[in-house]
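Sequence, please.
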């Protein structure tokens, strides 16, 4: 079992930056892919970015490409999401997730592929 705890959310102005962290514990060796998802009220959860931990391959949605960067620190068992040039439409609850699968370009955005989820951290971007 894997436990995930997100942090770093808050209120920021449009055009600003923030960095989210996801601390992982438990049987982290079985989590081969990790991702960030976000969900706005009344809307479905959407994939933001993902990483295959074995080789560092990363993926991101078109809406955040060039603005968000996913990374990891294996020594700290921590996943990060650096968010730059934030927009109001980036507002939502951000969730960290871990998968037992190797996820690629056609699978990383599918929530059923992730077995473990954090509690979420709220990000609010204002004009």
């Amino acid at each position: 079992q894997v436990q995930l705890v997100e942090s770093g959310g808050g209120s920021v102005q449009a055009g600003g930056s923030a960095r989210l962290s996801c601390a992982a514990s438990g049987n982290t060796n079985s989590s081969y892919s990790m991702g960030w998802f976000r969900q706005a009220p009344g809307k479905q959860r959407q994939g933001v970015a993902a990483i295959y931990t074995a080789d560092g391959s990363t993926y991101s949605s078109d809406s955040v490409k060039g603005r968000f960067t996913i990374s990891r620190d294996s020594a700290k068992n921590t996943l990060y999401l650096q968010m730059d040039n934030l927009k109001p439409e980036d507002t939502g609850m951000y969730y960290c997730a871990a998968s037992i699968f190797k996820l690629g370009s056609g699978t990383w955005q599918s929530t059923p592929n992730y077995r473990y989820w954090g509690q979420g951290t709220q990000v609010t971007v204002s004009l």
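The first strand starts at residue 2 and ends at 7.
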